[in-house]
Amino acid sequence: MEPLKRTSLYDTHRRLGARFTAFAGFEMPVSYGGIVEEHLAVRRAAGLFDLSHMGEFELSGPPGLALLERALSNSAAHLAPGRAQYTLMCAEDGGTIDDLIVYRLDLERYLVCVNAANIKADREEFLSLGGDRVGLSDRSAETGLLALQGPAAERILAELAPPEVCRLARFAVAEAELAGLSCVIARTGYTGEDGFEIFVPAEQAASLFEALLERGARFGLKPCGLGARDTLRLEAGLPLYGHELDRAISPLEAGLGAFVKLERDFVGASALRRQAQQGTARRLVGLLTDDARTPARQGYPVMSDGRRVGAVTSGSYAPALRRPVAMAYVETAFLAGNDIAASAPVTVEVRGRLVASRLACLPFYRRPAKKQAEAADA
Amino acid sequence: MEAPAGLKFSKQHEWVAADKEVATVGITDYAEQQLGEIVYVELPSVGDEVSKNDPFGVVESIKTASDVYAPLSGTVVAVNEQLSDHPEIINEDPYGQGWLIKVKIRDRADLDDLLESDEYEALVAEARE
User: Complex ipTM, two decimals?
Assistant: First the structure.
């Protein structure tokens, strides 16, 4: 086995008392003070994450755009300069190679942020579509990425960033100096809260992380690990590659049709058009165990009348809801006769025992409207 | 890291406090720290038999579900009912209020195979390296 890689913030994490876990070939902090505490800090104040393990590619000009249009399901051509979009990379059969975000930095330049576990697969796919001819550049190793997430994120960023950056709209992106460092700052995230993602040269990521922690302390900012990142995205109903998405799952099954422009010609489009016409065989739904105690975990079968109708893809205790929640793929045929909105009853097989459960609409958590209004006003 | 003297320990990170007839079983401070915040506990019922080295229950943290192994064989005579509503007690007081089950000892020789606190501390020190 290859030795685990470390981000440039490893020593900082150690000093902050992080417990580490292996994730996508990296030794990453799973938690510092505890997952629940970190999760609630993001819901109530703010959290700071090191995401430097994630991958970044750069492309430019009309040839770069043409490659993105061919490789990805959403339409990068519709992106205005200074805007970002969620999109998917599919295989010819419609299965998902990765889910990612494209940032259009200006008229010419595009930044693509991808899952750490898929950097190699994405690069190979881009190259197979002519990436080398259009100057595809893999900047993963030298790019650090921090996420500042939570209702206090904007006030904390204002301590270090020019006012116009703090006023960025949701899914807007800008290049700016932050604490004297050249950064790309976007109002994006993966927690269900308002927040920012900040790209910074890897060798400067630790000093930015520390500056944000110091200035954010009085707002309740806490360093957060991948443990809280997972429970936050689960509450917010966001898919995680390797769980809700993989090579054998199409974005349509995952309920991501809004990010798949079927009228366009991209890799996988014809398979996905067929799926859209015929309907998918399964669909991603929420699932709640009735006792509000038993966690339904990845791989647990979802049963109805002694028949397997689906399987759990992610499940964990949800700290803000103070109960376990799960996501599962369930057969569309079963869903046709059983209303999710009416909490259709099913059972989940937990270690050989059937636990009464109900299907639920996603997401489990939406940030309060008041906070959204504040974010829009500011 | 604390492994109180007077208790016995298994290599799978359970502790045992034995009197003449009954052994109280829990998971160690090291085990609860490794698991992180405990959110769910599944335990046997009073009257169930547990067998040495076989799983008798499950302790789930946010991240994962872990089996708990019986450090000795016997009949369950008590189960810590508090834990179903408050599994976090295991994190707060693993050697006290966070006990899991009490077992009527079938064969005292089972206890001889367990580690003393200094031996267990050495095992954990090694695991931490």
Answer: 0.88
